[in-house]
Write a structure and sequence with these properties.
Elements lengths: L3 E4 L2 H7 L14 H10 L9 E7 L2 E11 L2 E8 L9 H15 L6 E7 L3 H9 L3 E6 L2 E7 L1
Parallel strand pairs: 4-5
Antiparallel strand pairs: 1-2, 2-3, 3-4, 5-7, 6-7
Protein name: GNAT family N-acetyltransferase
Organism: Halobacillus yeomjeoni
GO molecular function, one term: acyltransferase activity, transferring groups other than amino-acyl groups
Length: 147
């Protein structure tokens, strides 16, 4: 599956807000986007992240969030629930990273993410995409990739 990325808009925000997952993540956290839209008139994600919707054709199929901190890019991501476990994860991660590296050209030398310790399938996908576990804080596994 090929993914293309566009800045998040209210319409896609409302669609992603309906996604419901079984297991480790019950819902993608969209509240910061709604709050920032109400208070600042623009969509800002968790922690001040920039949100981008991943599309396959014209259909929203994922979300990628980026926070640039000097030369390190922190990412958050979600694939639409009906696509989870169908073999798209590694490609989704790789294409989202490629997009992020192009969006923030020449500035990134590492990428980090955090994942729930019990979300073993996601950890495996991230490892297949090149991430290494760098630590753990409570229920959160910290992972890094150096470019």
């Amino acid at each position: 599956m090929e993914f293309h990325f566009k800045p998040i808009e209210k319409e896609s925000l409302d669609i992603i807000n309906t996604w419901d997952y079984d297991g480790f993540i019950e819902k993608v956290i969209m509240k910061p986007y709604y709050e920032s839209l109400k208070t600042k008139g623009k969509l800002i994600g968790p922690g001040g992240s920039e949100g981008f919707v991943a599309y396959s054709g014209q259909e929203p199929v994922g979300l990628f969030e980026y926070i640039l901190d000097e030369k390190q890019l922190e990412i958050g991501l979600a694939l639409r629930p009906d696509l989870v476990g169908r073999g798209y994860g590694k490609t989704f991660v790789e294409q989202g990273i490629k997009f992020g590296a192009e969006y923030y050209p020449g500035t990134i030398n590492s990428i980090k993410l955090t994942v729930d310790v019990d979300n073993k399938p996601a950890i495996r996908v991230y490892e297949k995409a090149g991430f290494k576990v760098s630590g753990q804080d409570g229920n959160e596994v910290k992972m890094h990739m150096f470019l």
